[in-house]
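Input set for joint prediction.
Command: fold jointly, output tokens.
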Amino acid sequence: MKISLEQRVMAANDEIAAALRRQWDERAVAVVNLVSSPGSGKTALLERTLEQLRGLCAVAVLVGDIQTENDARRLSGYGFRVKQILTSGACHLEASMIAKHFPRVDTQDLQLLLIENVGNLVCPSAYDLGEDAKVVLVSVTEGEDKPLKYPGIFRRAQAAVVTKIDLLPYLDFNLEELRRNIAEIHADLPVFLVSSRTGDGISAWVDWLLGRPAVKVQQR
Amino acid sequence: MHEVGLASQIVGMAVREAERRNAFEVVTVTVTVGRLLQIERDSLQFGLDVLKGEHPCTEKTRFVLVDEPVQVHCSWCEATTIVDAWRFVCGACGSGAVAVTRGDDLIVSEMEVRGNENIAGTAGHGSE
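tokens >
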């Protein structure tokens, strides 16, 4: 007996993500999901970002890693709630993990939830976490062709952050080529150039982040 | 790496559907794999072939993966065309004002099952 099914495999994840999104929309909580290769500087960027957001915005952080609580330790101490999600092997965060751990960082006045995904440019792009925006990071010590090699995440992202720009004088990295490659996959994607070490470019990125909760309030 | 997780979901969907229909054997499952998903087909196939052994009704199932090209709809000229993955321009007029309509999803599209009603004397050989 042949059965026509047409069932989406991601449906279970996407239902949980949709429920999270509804909850966050109602409360006007903006949610940003940071995705990059391991070592692109997601945690360093978050350290700088939290430092800047202190006193300006009520933030919570969920940080995903396969092992260790190191990132959560680094990100605590800025006055915001931070929770490590250990995926014990899984290469990405799923909506169910966010649903389980979010209550631990939630506060009544929450405006912005920052999610640091597991370092990986492929798998996280397929999983909706209920976020408003995925942000892809690429550091200047990686290849200019990253967007072409990993087009999925660049297509789904709503902003790109180029990190470690303080290293540019020591590298043969061609920033314009990276920009062209990003534009080829995702025209008009906002691109921020930052150095978490020197603080260069951080304010433009933080302004963009601060704009997210404002957009949500307007949409309500 | 998430192919194994996806394979586990797919096997689970097949088993649930078989149970729901009182079938004791899943013969084939057709899975449509959109090109934009960046799924490694060999890994997915491997995962399916390993995980299907965990359930009596899927032990012998043949999982067929069907590649789905990327289809876009152009809001400028209203054409629907098949395009190369990651080249999001209309195949008819070249405009970039396109929305992806196919090739961006992983779908269990079809199943073939043997149910208890088809073969006499097999009642009781339920699939768990």
